[in-house]
Amino acid sequence: DAGVTQSPTHLIKTRGQQVTLRCSPKSGHDTVSWYQQALGQGPQFIFQYYEEEERQRGNFPDRFSGHQFPNYSSELNVNALLLGDSALYLCASSFGGWGTDTQYFGPGTRLTVL
Amino acid sequence: QQQVKQSPQSLIVQKGGISIINCAYENTAFDYFPWYQQFPGKGPALLIAIRPDVSEKKEGRFTISFNKSAKQFSLHIMDSQPGDSATYFCAASLAGGTSYGKLTFGQGTILTVHP
Which of A17, A18, B6, B13 could cross-link to B17 by cystine, CB 3.0-4.6 Å? Predict the structure, then answer.
């Protein structure tokens, strides 16, 4: 049973560019959440997708957008990259039913903005 | 009100000792409290989780103690091993509504277990 997978593993971009990160959830999961983890910090919630819609959003600007596909996989897009966007981007999957909170994280994508 | 405060920032324990990490929260609507373990270059892995209706939960060498009135919870690692050396995060989430499933994390504790 494959766990949560993310691609690419590492990415280097320059300021002003755009980036797309990808996530495939754990088998049987239908909900995908994205988190940003700065070096030495705890993960910060970006947004969550369920049934191909953004269900809730954290305190991140509109430069951060996402999408969920019918197969439950998801993309995170960041436009107009800033140096401060350099971080580990984590995807977590879960089952969207009420009362099920367990989220399983992928290995992350390390984004470096130069 | 959405913060989760974690302490200590770092912890050094001898092999076989007990590691204790503490977290405090403000929002009484939180109802799910997981602990995650993260190794360098990896994503966080769920260790153990608790809900407010119990005061303690044990899984192997890992125990969560929960104090609802004090709005605090802690992770105890018994018989700590060098392989336990990692960063530990506490987290909390709400029961439902618009914030359902959103995990709020503490700042993390770097645990080092010396052989």
Answer: B13
Say whether pLDDT at A47 is over 90: yes
Inter-chain CB proximity A44 and B108 less than 8 Å: no
Q: Which residue has the tokens 């010396």?
A: B114
Q: What mean pLDDT do residues A63-89 have? A: 97
3-class SS at B97?
helix
Place of tokens 């401060």: A84
Which residues of A fall within a CB distance of 8 Å from B96? 98
Q: How far is CA A111 from the centre of its chain?
A: 12
Cα(B66)–Cα(B80) distance, integer angstroms: 21
| Phi, then psi, of A69 in degrees rounded to 5 | -95, 165
For B98, phi then psi, to 5°, come to: -70, -15
pLDDT given at position A55: 86
Q: Do A43 and B49 touch (CB under 8 A)?
A: no
